[in-house]
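Example 3.
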Amino acid sequence: MAMLQVIDFGKRFTIHHLGKTRQTVEHIHFSLEQGEFLGVVGKSGSGKSTILKSIYRTYCPDTGSIIYDSARYGLIDLTHATEREILYLRKHEIGYVSQFLNVMPRTTSRELVEKALLEMGATEADAKLEAEKALTHFELDQKLWDNYPNTFSGGEKLRLNIAMATVKKPRLLLLDEPTASLDQQSKIKVREIIEKLKASGTTLVGIFHDIEFMDGLCDHVFDMQFRSDKAVKEGVIHES
Amino acid sequence: MREEPILHVRNLNKQFGRGCVHCRDKTKRQLEKNYCPTCGTVYACQDVSLNLFPGEILGIVGESGSGKSTMMQCLYFDASVTSGEAYIHNGELNGKNVFALSQQKKRYIRNNKYGMVYQNPVNGLKMNFSSMGNIAEKLIAAGNRNVSSMERTGHQLLEHVQIPLFRSKEEPQNFSGGMQQRVQIAKALSNNPPILFLDEVTTGLDLSVQANVLDLIKEIQREWGISMIVVSHDLAVIRMLADRTMVMLNGSVIEEGLTDQILEDPQHAYTQRLVYSLL
């Protein structure tokens, strides 16, 4: 059974004050097995983030269904799950990483990662240990551990963001342009992180701008332009 | 695997005034605003229903006059309800409509199940009692009689909310607004309530103090597992604190959902106006 299955998904935005309705995406189909990595590509404005945010339920689902195979609930349609179920899944099973860091003010990076763990019910000692492991793992400079993230560079913020999401060991991780506005060096680091996550069995959906960056990493590529889900064979991304 | 809410409110109505032939029948009521133009009756809360689950923070946003504070006051028994039911699923109160209980039982709930933090500390604290005295008052109301244990609890709480202990005997009227708010939180927490109401707690505080109070609230949620209802018109506060959010307009709930969904994909015209005005 597929881990994530998106069936005939569509999303429309209505802005009442302008009296306008805009269909951003429609007829989206794809499915993903456990441990696979799906890359979503397309022009800006083609609705890549809309799909991701709808899976995470930041956006209200519109049409179609998104079936997720949950460890706790079994097969669950994320478009119809209750808010409490979604909150549980976000806490324990589904992670979301964007290029923006949105956190409590005046909290150090160490505290942020620890809090992510404590939220799941880890003990203080475990949280401290795991947080340090994660920060080391994602190569965040030790000088930054007890600093507020306000002053971090884009790459450091992103790695902190990924650390916060991955300490929870999510079964499904959504990556919303995690490499945007990063230099080549940082991009390579993110790529290594994704490789590690994939190796540990995490199912991943990622949006990427630069297609060559994903070379050899994706199992599938979903192209917004053709709305098709093509398997990647022998490390070659589909020919369009 | 259905989860049981700790507080369940069904069709809460609160009106100020007796109503008239034009507005008494709910189905015939055609109110532009939440008051009747003929008799002036104000319908402050109209069929408000909500569920509060264990350990979560429920945010309530809306403009002034939307009925959010009235709803909170009704739940805390500061105001009587016109109609409606509320159930607390905690211990001996299971299955009883708390609005229908006797005054004595209501006082018991206030002292043992609820904590309340008002926007204005004057409402929640006795300004000419010491901070410790304020906390002791609540503890005594909840049935404590042992002075030394009350003192211990009081010290712990004040320490927790970062009030220096050498000022614990001082009256809150000498304190700054942020400190008063923190004493109020300590007082509300003193009886270890499962449910905490916070009414515009950060409004009027400067940003650094506000961050301090928000930190404290988040910490309380994490460490004590208390369920909270947070009323605020400040969307940034709601974004930082609330797991789920309800939007009220003219006494009715017009939208509810996950907080980030309300802020990023609001559905109702009013919520959109509110969210898109955010700087």
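Chain B has a mean pLDDT of 90. The CA atoms of residues 185 and 207 of chain B lie 18 Å apart.
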